[in-house]
Structures are given as structure tokens and as C-alpha cells.
Design a protein that fits this description.
Blueprint (H helix, E strand, L loop, with lengths): L1 E6 L3 H12 L4 E4 L16 E3 L15 H12 L5 H11 L3 H6 L4 E2 L12 E4 L2 H16 L2 E3 L6 E5 L2 E7 L2 E10 L8 H8 L13 E2 L8 H8 L4 E2 L5 E7 L20 E4 L13 H4 L3 H6 L6 E5 L15 E3 L2 H8 L3 H14 E2 L12 E2 L18 E13 L2 E2 L6 E4 L2 E8 L17 H29 L1
Parallel strand pairs: 1-2, 1-9, 2-6, 9-21, 10-18
Antiparallel strand pairs: 3-5, 4-5, 7-8, 8-9, 11-19, 12-18, 13-14, 14-18, 15-18, 16-17, 20-21
Helix pairs in contact: 1-5, 1-12, 2-3, 3-12, 10-11
């Protein structure tokens, strides 16, 4: 019998598998996808948010535990478990040497990746390189890996893991780590969660999925039905406003539109609906998908002028370009007079001080609702550009309640051999909101914890059986 069964194939699952193997356990990893698509959403990532008290190779200055915690507290609005969040934060300060030992390399913050040189360590080659490095290391250490092996259900005995089912195949193990992702690619579940809005629309029908098509939430649904303690809101997710022309699945990072804070965003009725300059983009980019999801038709447009060009990471698709605001509105299919009036009101309300996109500057609007609190400059320099936006779901936050040992809970009682990592438990830390790189911090921290605890549980059971 195998010691530790790891279900999932992304960052959290791989960290768990590697840690369990290093602890002396035999490990089998089951990945639902074909080998070519392995890695779940981790293949689309770029970086890890890291606490550090002093400069650290690719990380400049310092980013303390307290500042990290305050950043997380601000974006979640307090919807977070402080003890588990601080556990993630502290783990983020010590995990990188271990990551390097498994072939992960780091590079300085990318040009155009605003404000992250101090807070985020970027993976050389991106998430795909990280995933491939971990798989190579797992193979070298003797972790067994099976692809196209989706787990449909588990066999449980009063909260204890007994076996997993892949179709008609039953796989026993002494302990198990669940790291199979959220339910973001399950359209029916998204429709169920979001329901019908006041306009009679099913908002979820217009969502794009930034990440993998293989995160269907099958195990999450099973655990919910099996009486596991759940946490989080099914409508909360890492949801980004992405290019409306992005593919339905696996668009990844290149579909993000990063010019929001440099201009204005209007909905289908050519009206602004939120403060584009509320805070630095890495702390706010992941709220815009939800904001767009609440607009008519779940669509919006990011509008900039020539002054913004070169100040943000260019998207993969060019924007719609025009020499006048009226012409741009016609090209975007928006009512021209309303659009021009919206932009003229915004331009008149701008109080331009010392523009500085690397700081919370004093360029703001007055007498305008919603206000733009930073980086407010009139859009008056042609050519003008418009980017159509749709909600892009990265991962969902509904998950399994865990403790500091990453143990699943049933009726408030911790399982002694079933552990959870990654998106399946991220809702313990992320009740809502997001800040760049924290998903990888959660997956790495709890993947490592879950793998260690699963190995200890398996070795304990093995020794009991031998006695």
C-alpha cells in the first residue's frame, strides 16, 4: 500500500508530494489532466509574494510580516483567518531555498510589473518552468505520477481517508492530500452560485476562465456532500477583468488588461462605476473581474489616451484605436454622446498635481462620483484606446476548513490522515479580494505542511500496523 496519495498536479500538490517523499514516505500523485496540460493554474503564474526583513537576492528593501498582513487584511476586508494567514506569511520567508533545491530559479521583477520588486519573487521562466522543475524533482526522488487520472470520490471512515476512486479503480493509501483546485471550470456550478441577477441575466454565462479547464470541483463537491466543514462564499474568487477576446480556458497572464488605473472604465451604458485609482494595481487588479461581473452584460471597457502608452504591461491583443472620443465610442459600440459626456465630466473633474504612477500621488478628481483618488489625468491626448473587458475567473474561494496542520475537518473534528492544500483551502486565508502572488504563497505553505503531516500520519500508521 502507498503511504501518501496526493490528488492534484499543481504547485500545492507538488510541494506536498516532494515534502512527503523527503520525509521518507512512498508517494503517488494523481493528476486529472494529460501530461501536456499538467500543473493546473500554477502553470499560468509568475511569482510568489514573500515576507523578508532585509534585501534578499531578487527582492529589494524589506517587506515585513506586519506589512504583508496589513496588505492582506486590506484586500480581504477582514475576511481571513489571521492565524493561518500569518502562518502563510512566515512560511513565505523561508520556502525559497527549498524551492531552489528542487530546481526553481528566480529573477528580478519584470519590467512593467508595477510595484512588485519589493514584495514578489518572480520565477525564471514563469509558472510552467516551476511546475516542470517540480515534476523533474519528483521523478528523481521516486514519486509515482499518473496523468489523466481524475478522482471521482473518496472512501472515508468517520473522517479518516481509506481510498480514492478513479473510475472503477480503487486506490488505497495510509494518508491523503487533497490539492485538486477549485470549481472555476465547472460552468454549471458557477451558474448555480451566481444565480440570476436583477436584469434576468445569468452572469456566469459570460465568465471566461483564465486558468485550467480541469478544475471542475468534483472532489470539493464530494467533500461537501460527505459532511466536511466548508469555508467561504461560492461567488468569491480571484476574478480579474481580462481581454474580452481571450479564450474560454487557459488564457493565463497575457490576457490581463493592466491599464485600468491609468484611465477610466465604463460599462455598456458608457458610465463609470468604480474608482480606478483606489490603490496600486497589484492590490486591486483582482477586484475588477467581480466589478465587471456586476455590470450589464458582464462587459466593460478600459479607456486610455496616448499619455498612458508605455506605462503598463502591454496586453497580447492591441486595443481599439481612434483619433477622437466620439470615433472611439462608435468603434466600441457605445452610445457616442453619453460616452463623450462621461469623459468630459471626468476630464473637468481632474485635479492634476504631481503625477507619479509608482506612488499614491495627488492627482485626483473633485465633485465626481465615483471619484478617482490617484493618477487622475484628463484623457485629452489622441490617439485614444479602448479595451473590452470580461470577468476572468482564476480560482474560486469556496473550500475546506483546515487548521495549522492542514487537516480537513468534519463536525469540528480534525481528520488524522486527510489533509488539504492550495485552492481547495485558500478560502481560509482569502475570504474575498486578492493581492498579487498570495495564491502561490498559500499553495506553497500549505502544500509543504500537508505533505509533511501526511507523511507523519502514514509513518505512524505503518509503525502501528507493524507493532
Amino acid at each position: 500500500m502507498i503511504d501518501v496519495l496526493v490528488i492534484g498536479g499543481g504547485n500545492a500538490a507538488l510541494c506536498a508530494a516532494l515534502m512527503a517523499r523527503e520525509a521518507g514516505a512512498s508517494v503517488l500523485l494523481l493528476e486529472a489532466s494529460p501530461q501536456a496540460w499538467r500543473g493546473g493554474n500554477s502553470q499560468h503564474t509568475r511569482n510568489l509574494r514573500c515576507m523578508h526583513d532585509a534585501p534578499q537576492d531578487v527582492l529589494v528593501e524589506a517587506y515585513t510580516e506586519e506589512e504583508y498582513w496589513q496588505d492582506l487584511l486590506k484586500v480581504t476586508g477582514g475576511a481571513t483567518n489571521e492565524a493561518l494567514a500569518r502562518l502563510v506569511i512566515r512560511e513565505s520567508s523561508t520556502c525559497r531555498p527549498w524551492m531552489r533545491s528542487h530546481g526553481v530559479h528566480f529573477q528580478p521583477s519584470l519590467s512593467g510589473a508595477l510595484h512588485t520588486a519589493r514584495t514578489n519573487a518572480f520565477f525564471m521562466g514563469g509558472g510552467k518552468a516551476l511546475v516542470n522543475a517540480y515534476y523533474r524533482s519528483a521523478e528523481r526522488l521516486g514519486v509515482q505520477v499518473r496523468y489523466e487520472a481524475p478522482v471521482d470520490s473518496l472512501e472515508l471512515d468517520e473522517g479518516r481517508f481509506v481510498a480514492a476512486w478513479v473510475g472503477s479503480e480503487r486506490i488505497e493509501a495510509r494518508s491523503c492530500v487533497l490539492a485538486a483546485g477549485g470549481f472555476e471550470s465547472n460552468r454549471e456550478w458557477l451558474r448555480e452560485a451566481w444565480g440570476v441577477n436583477e436584469r434576468g441575466e445569468h452572469p456566469a454565462d459570460n465568465f471566461l476562465i483564465r486558468g485550467t479547464r480541469f478544475n471542475t470541483g468534483t472532489l470539493l463537491r464530494f467533500m461537501q456532500g460527505a459532511g466536511a466543514d466548508m469555508i467561504g462564499d461560492a461567488t468569491q474568487a480571484h476574478m480579474v477583468a481580462i481581454d474580452a477576446r481571450a479564450p474560454l480556458y487557459d488564457g493565463g497572464i497575457c490576457t490581463r488588461i493592466d491599464c485600468v488605473s491609468l484611465g477610466v472604465v465604463v460599462n455598456r451604458e458608457a458610465q463609470r462605476f468604480y474608482d480606478e485609482g483606489e490603490d496600486f494595481w497589484p492590490k486591486r487588479y483582482a477586484i475588477w473581474g467581480r466589478l465587471v461581473a456586476q455590470q450589464p452584460g458582464q462587459v466593460a471597457w478600459s479607456i486610455i489616451d496616448a499619455k498612458a502608452v508605455g506605462r503598463f504591461m502591454p496586453p497580447v491583443f492591441p486595443g481599439t484605436q481612434a483619433d477622437s472620443l466620439h470615433e472611439l465610442a462608435v468603434m466600441l459600440g457605445l452610445e457616442p454622446n453619453t460616452f463623450v459626456q462621461t469623459l468630459e465630466r471626468y476630464n473637468a473633474a481632474c485635479r492634476v498635481g504631481s503625477f507619479d504612477h509608482t506612488a499614491l500621488d495627488d492627482c485626483h478628481t473633485e465633485g465626481l462620483a465615483p471619484a478617482k483618488t490617484h493618477w487622475a489625468r484628463p484623457l485629452d491626448t489622441p490617439p485614444f484606446y479602448g479595451y473590452a473587458l470580461r470577468p476572468g475567473v482564476t480560482f474560486t474561494y469556496l473550500g475546506l476548513k483546515v487548521d495549522a496542520r492542514a487537516a480537513a475537518h468534519f463536525g469540528g473534528r480534525a481528520s488524522d490522515n486527510l489533509f488539504v492544500a492550495g485552492e481547495m483551502m485558500a478560502g481560509n486565508v482569502l475570504g474575498k479580494g486578492y493581492t498579487a502572488g498570495v495564491g502561490m504563497s498559500i499553495g506553497t505553505a500549505f502544500g509543504r505542511i500537508a505533505g509533511t503531516q501526511a507523511a507523519l500520519a502514514a509513518i505512524k500508521e505503518h509503525s502501528h500496523a507493524a507493532a
